[in-house]
Amino acid sequence: MEQVTGSQEKVQDDDNPREALSGWRYHPRAARVLLVLFTLSVAGAVLLPKSWEAARTLSFTVGVFCAGMMAARTAAIWQRISG
Questions:
Q1: Which residues constitute the domain of residue 67?
Q2: Is the Cα dihedral 46, 49, 52, 55 positive or negative?
Q3: 78: closest CA among 26, 35, 33, 30?
Q4: Is the pTM value of this prediction over 0.90?
Q5: Does residue 5 belong to any structural domain of this protein?
Q6: Start-to-end Cα distance in the chain
Q7: Does 76 fall in a domain?
Q8: Which of 24, 27, 28, 50 could form a disulfide with 79 if both were Cys (CB 3.0 to 4.6 A apart)?
Q9: What residues form DSSP beta bridges with 24?
Q10: Per-residue DSSP letters for 10-69?
Q11: Dist. CA 70–CA 42, nearest whole Å
Q12: 42 domain-assigned
């Protein structure tokens, strides 16, 4: 059996969600890409004709995905900053 060492005790003791986010921020490029995709998908859902049901649904789905990724605290677009 392997003995696990490290800072796992600290991870289990952190109950404050604000403290867990200290030192993290959005990755600028990833956030920009998601924001552009979100804006385009919302515009597509609004501007596409109603007869294009599949394209409107796809546009709405991409928009929901982008909004969820930007809001998720554990998403891959977060990066640790030094300091």
A1: 38-83
A2: negative
A3: 26
A4: no
A5: no
A6: 36
A7: yes
A8: 27
A9: 80
A10: HHHH---HHHHHTTEEE-HHHHHHHHHHHHHHHHHHHHS-TT-HHHHHHHHHHHHHHHHH
A11: 15
A12: yes
Q: At how many degrees (to 10) do helices 53-71 and 28-47 cross? A: 150
Q: Which amino acid is at 4?
A: V
Give me the amino acid identity at 2: E
Q: Quote the CA–CA distance of 31 and 72 in Å, as a whole number.
A: 12
User: Into how many domains does the chain fold?
Assistant: 1
- Residue carrying structure tokens 């677009």: 77
Q: Residue 11 pLDDT > 60, yes or no?
A: no
For residue 59, is it within any domain?
A: yes
Whether 82 shows a pLDDT value over 80: the answer reads no
pLDDT, tens digit, 9 for 90 and up, residues 15-59: 666 666 666 677 888 888 889 999 999 999 889 999 999 999 999
Q: 66-78 burial, b if ≥16 CB within 10 A, otherwise e?
A: bbebeeeeeeebb
